[in-house]
Design goal:
The structure is a single chain. By secondary structure, the protein is of the alpha/beta class. The protein has a single domain (5-230), classed as Aldolase class I (TIM Barrel, Alpha-Beta Barrel). 34% of the residues lie in helices and 20% in strands. The chain has nine helices and nine strands. An eight-stranded parallel barrel has the order 1-2-4-5-6-7-8-9, surrounded by four helices. Helix 5 links the parallel strand 5 and strand 6. The protein starts with a helix and ends with a helix. Keywords: Isomerase, Metal-binding. One of its GO terms (molecular function) is metal ion binding.
């Protein structure tokens, strides 16, 4: 996929549909991805080392396998310790990732990581934990293609949306608008995504939400996506 140009092809007049592979049927992953492919704008793959985040997820070979199954952009979200960020960027870039997000909390290696993503021709994203002040991303904003705010504690499924999630998205929107970036920066919300929270996140400025069970377990995915696109 051409360097970063795919971002400009993402919808601008509706919510971008980002589907989390963590919520797919992992035993029958190829079948489940084929089932949802027509509805997906971006596939989201979480990576966690069991230290930075409590879960242990996923690995470069999985991304390489998914890359063979779909032409949709793949967004890898790194939830890992500073010491392995650079090596993991290399491996996930080799596996076919179109977008790799590190955490703003990886600030010890953040500039070097963003330099590496630029050299590899991979779109650059950053993610903020729910407890991290949004202001910390300002110094990196102009270098980003994606900015994702977590609305729940990192790496744990099934939590309710933090009450400040909407306010934090508004702060991030302001930072993006004043960043001076000449390219498109997409603002994303991840965590606590439910039918009753989606309108709140959209109204606060989210351009994409990371859909898990709301997509993969929908009684009728076409109906769910019609509702999503109407927000």
């Amino acid at each position: 996929m051409p360097h970063k140009t795919w971002i400009n092809d993402l919808p601008k007049d509706r919510l971008i549909a980002e589907f989390s592979v963590w919520s797919a049927d992992l035993v029958h992953l190829a079948d489940d991805l084929a089932r949802v492919d027509e509805h997906v704008d971006i596939l989201h793959i979480d990576v966690a080392d069991g230290h930075f985040a409590p879960a242990m997820l996923f690995f470069p070979d999985l991304v390489a396998g998914v890359r063979k199954l779909t032409k949709k952009p793949i967004h890898v979200h790194l939830m890992i310790a500073d010491s392995i960020v650079l090596s993991q960027i290399e491996q996930f870039a080799d596996a076919g990732s179109d977008l790799i997000s590190l955490h703003v909390e990886n600030d010890a290696v953040a500039d070097e990581a963003l330099d590496l993503l630029e050299r590899r021709g991979v779109a650059a994203g950053m993610v903020l934990r729910v407890e991290t002040p949004v202001e910390r991303v300002r110094k990196y904003a102009a270098r980003l293609d994606f900015l994702t705010l977590l609305g729940t504690a990192i790496g744990v499924k099934g939590q309710g949306l933090d009450e400040k999630a909407g306010e934090r998205l508004g702060q991030a929107r302001q930072i993006i608008e004043t960043s001076g970036a000449e390219h498109r920066i997409v603002l994303a919300a991840d965590g606590g995504i439910r039918e009753h929270t989606m309108p709140v996140l959209r109204a606060a400025g989210a351009q994409t939400v990371v859909l898990g069970s709301l997509a993969f377990n929908a009684p009728s995915l076409p109906e769910r996506m019609t509702w999503l696109h109407a927000l």
